[in-house]
């Protein structure tokens, strides 16, 4: 429904809202910028997600964030007022581990990332190293081929606040071996803003490693459709699935690629001004429907 | 001459070599990968450059390396056996300072780079900060708008072995102001190889900052033609200028863009295999002539 143009749900009639709510069985929601920003729930989001659950929808939290394991994400969601189980969390840290295990990977991972990915890898029995600060002493010029671990068979790049020149050097050097896999969690340029300080996203690090390795990463997070393939094995019906997000170039593009319905909320990265620009540029895809914030849906259903 | 296809100078007749040597008055040579690798001269390169000088050619050392000031580059060249004066060194550190001074820049530079750029900026009276390790304590999430210096009017990105997440964050946050200039020394993906260890080049950092700032840098180094504009004010005749390099996508592309003759040597980044690929892909541009190493020209002239 509402396929002809971006539709502000607030302008829908009560019947249209009811029809919309009946049009999906599964809700996939992005987290940062839709449900919360940093450690604060966006007002109304917990109630809206819990309302979907009450209506009998299956819920999945689909996040490109790779800094936490699934159980920690579930705890964070619960503390902010969301009903959430670890099995409902599809974080990129989990997806990386699931992907590598799925292809029968048995070598070591050089990980440019955090313990979120490290712990998920460990949970499926995949060895890894690289988390935390790295220093090549006395300086990067002293690094030699004997410093490289010959057992490494994949470089994984996720969010890493300890990114450094030696890490770029090691990642590029492992990737010089064509048999070494190159997997990235996501390519988000930035995190949703909470002030004039820009928080660079994992895409900043992925583009850097792609540049010095002269290779392209396999990206498992949105807008890549790996999540759809993953969920289809659990019986997901794309046509009766709603993807909720705050970014047209990840969440909405992901939803459109996967054949889902899409809802954009304006509490994160994509602003009303951006949406206007996207409408003119015709790229990335536009959402089916928009809402100022996710919680607004509750006002529409009670009216 | 030799315009129809890539010509191996070693296959030229003595008359053709003589004609080639008479076809240019000015020699621009890249440094890393052509004249030296790390701190070792490539055998024959000092003698070849000094031979050009003896023939009365004007010599310029054109390097995308931004880690040294001009006088230090000249000392390095001299120690490796090259005749060289600081005024003949066109390094990107110098070009950044020359560019900013030329446009009347009076604000502060946030510098993701090394003392090479810092000292060149200082020499022209431009204030800067950012060189060396950076730590936002206790972590990046604690950085606030009050940590930003309102006097910053440009972000300059060069080679920085102390690159870190806080540096990306600061660069992107300054660049969120559209009036803030974004200048990069160069976009080289890697340094020339001396082992299986890949040494990421400045392009790795520039692409990262471009990603998180969602802006494109003004790049002053090769293949940008800023060097040609700079030299034309000194009376350079492009048609009688030879550009020597080891990389098709910087040195040779730069030479072709500027209307120079071009000579590729195989002692650095671009390999014979790469050259074959470039010949098929038709991008980046091919050189007019090739030599296995620069010093080989001496054998051709004495034969």
TrEMBL record, chains A, B:
Q: Which GO terms describe its molecular function?
A: metal ion binding; phosphatase activity
**Looking at the record's lineage, which domain of life comes first?**
Eukaryota
The protein's matches in InterPro entries, at most eight in alphabetical order, are given as:
HAD-like_sf, HAD-SF_hydro_IIA, HAD_sf, PGP_euk
Question: Listed GO cellular component terms?
Answer: cytoplasm
Which residues does Mg(2+) bind?
30, 32, 246
The note on cofactor binding and number reads: Divalent metal ions. Mg(2+) is the most effective.
Q: Which cofactor does it need?
A: Mg(2+)
Q: Where does substrate bind?
A: 222
Q: Name one Pfam family in it.
A: Hydrolase_like
- Which terms are listed as keywords in the entry? Hydrolase, Magnesium, Metal-binding
Q: Give the residues annotated as active site.
A: 30 (nucleophile), 32 (proton donor)
Identify its protein family: Belongs to the HAD-like hydrolase superfamily.
Q: What is this protein called?
A: Glycerol-3-phosphate phosphatase isoform X2
> In which organism is this protein found?
Bicyclus anynana
Its gene name is LOC112043169
